[in-house]
Amino acid sequence: VLLGGVLLVGSAIRAVWRRRIVAALLSAAIGLAMVGVGGFAAYVAAIGSDLLTHPTANTDCRTPMSRFAWTYEAINYDVADDSLLGNSNPDPEHCSTQGQAAGTDVVTSDGVGIAGWYIPAADGAGPAAPTVVLVHGWGANKSEVLKYAVPLHEHYNVVAFDLRGGGRSGNAATTFGLREQQDLEAVIDWLERAKHPTHVAVMGNSMGGGTAAIAAASDLRIEALILDSTHAYVANIVERRLEVDSGYPAHPGTSAIVAGVWVRTGLDLMTADPVRAITSLGDRPLLLLHGAADIHDVPAQSVDVIYAAAESAGVSVERHFCPDASHGKVIDTCPAQWGEWATAFLDRVLR
């Protein structure tokens, strides 16, 4: 009896210790997993938010004159610097510098100097004629967005400018339109006081479309809007870059990057969703252009979301797809169609 009791007590003690050991191992495993997830989130937040807010700058420094033999006016810098820039860069599509920084004539409300070009219409209609402002995408500049002026140049004055952090404009973090709207507004301020156009429309590509939409929501001077390859939600852009470009899981990576951007800029990136701004257009018309082959960056379903939101809000909206175009390549893949869609829209709503 005594021996049986001893064995029974020993078995009970071993069971207790087994449970304690299993519990300790489980706690350690959970702790390590949490450290791993936390470490991954911290890494993605730091690296991802830095890449998002400080993209690699486009090195193209071609001007309207060097590329298309168009006359133009420099906005907020000395035009003579373009000749110096051209002479010192044998390959103007890959320039070592963007040249002289923006001056003090065009400055945003938060103190960033903005530089650009004013390109008068080829038909000589004069500065009072309708003017289209072009807004480039993430990591691009005014030279890259110049291609959109080709079908517009005949009858429309065109403005192309560098968003903050790109080209000749002041160095500042990229915020997917939240602060870039101030850049666009500063350019329209200059346009109004220097040229007095009768009508102003804005065309934005990708992130430039987001910037244009956010600005148009509160700036009634923007009478018509063209969005090319523009996302509906910023989170979708972040998710695609994590999954497709980097191979990281979208969750919790997206939340980590959004948190990282907030730490860097104090801004909530989720408030930069273009679809939110579209509903504020009222009776101002909207044209949506997108590449049907855009499957990696901004899938074509994104434009359907914007279209549906515009229709629900009573906005006059139309959309067109280029069948083989990838992200931001609608005008490259379907140049004739892009020109027809854009000019027909502008002629109808402005001219």
Walk me through the structure.
With 351 residues, this protein is an alpha/beta fold. The protein has twelve helices and eight strands.
Total beta strands: 8
Query: How many helical elements?
Result: 12
Strand content: 5-15%
* Straight-line N-to-C gap: 107 Å
Helix and strand sequence: HHEHEEHEHEHEHHHEHEHH
What is the residue-mean pLDDT, rounded to a whole number?
A: 89
- Shape, principal axes of CA atoms: globular
Reading side by side through the largest sheet, how are the strands ordered? 1-2-4-3-5-6-7-8
Estimated structural class: alpha/beta
Gyration radius from CA atoms, angstroms: 26 Å
Nutshell version of this structure?
By secondary structure, the chain is an alpha/beta fold. The chain is built from 12 helices and 8 strands.
Features:
single chain, 351 residues, alpha/beta, eight-stranded mixed beta sheet, 46% helix
Question: How does the SSE layout of this entry go?
Answer:
Layout: H1 2-53, H2 64-68, E1 73-75, H3 80-88, E2 116-119, E3 131-135, H4 142-145, E4 157-161, H5 180-194, E5 200-205, H6 207-218, E6 224-228, H7 234-246, H8 250-265, H9 274-278, E7 286-291, H10 301-312, E8 317-322, H11 330-333, H12 335-349
Parallel strand pairs: 3-4, 3-5, 5-6, 6-7, 7-8
Antiparallel strand pairs: 1-2, 2-4
Helix pairs in contact: 1-8, 5-6, 7-8
